[in-house]
Design a protein that fits this description.
Elements (H helix, E strand, L loop, with lengths): L1 H17 L13 E9 L4 E9 L1 H11 L7
Antiparallel strand pairs: 1-2
Amino acid sequence: MRRLVMAAAMAMALVPLLAGQAAAHPLGNYTVNRAVAVVIGTERVDLTYIVDMAEIPALAEIDAIDAGGEGS
């Protein structure tokens, strides 16, 4: 029984060494992810809308918002 426990502990200790690297942008530089949460209560409705943009869509949106070109 003790050998089995030791073998399992050694195997678990080696698992992190076998893991690969994680990519910073697994979905790419052009992705736009959206999430919506709606909570309906007795007196109000709460709506949470989240937009997560990668670098390229975010930069394009910033340029579209800054119509005057003054950087604010």
